[in-house]
Specification:
Radius of gyration: 17 Å
Number of helices: 8
Order of helices and strands: HHHHHHHH
Helix content: over 70%
């Protein structure tokens, strides 16, 4: 699952830093904070919609699906799949085997959202955020696959 909006933001930030000739500056540090916050908002909406759709298709109430989704956000993304039963977590884990960097993208964006938004600043560059983002979206595809009825 690629995000056109995040890709656009990354390109715009990269272009700005290039034109302003300000790599490794305070401006880049602020941009490297803003991008993960934006990524979190998009990731949370994607996961919420996919999770709710799967839960509703199983006959759950919307309220129960939302409560479990909120609980999932405080943990690791793959662990939330086990809440729906079936082979969902096993399916995700099989795809993710040996791809820890990719899986950690989602978990880090979810787990560190408050630290990133309110912390002392980013310790990465905009280019590093972009590379991690592009690689990590694969985990969202695995998440969507694991929520499919074939894994129930």
């Amino acid at each position: 699952m690629r995000s056109r909006d995040i890709d656009r933001v990354l390109a715009l930030c990269g272009k700005h830093l290039q034109v302003a000739k300000s790599p490794n500056s305070e401006v880049e540090s602020l941009l490297a904070i803003a991008i993960p916050v934006r990524m979190h908002a998009e990731l949370e909406l994607f996961v919420k919609n996919e999770f709710e759709e799967a839960a509703l298709s199983m006959g759950w109430s919307r309220e129960r699906a939302r409560d479990l989704f909120r609980g999932m956000l405080s943990g690791q993304l793959p662990d939330g799949l086990s809440l729906l039963g079936g082979d969902r977590k096993t399916s995700f884990d099989a795809r993710a085997s040996g791809q820890q960097r990719t899986v950690s993208f989602c978990s880090n964006v979810i787990g560190n959202r408050h630290h990133v938004a309110r912390g002392p600043g980013a310790r990465v560059t905009v280019q590093e955020v972009g590379s991690f983002c592009k690689e990590g979206h694969t985990a969202l595809d695995w998440f969507r696959e694991a929520l499919s009825p074939s894994c129930a």
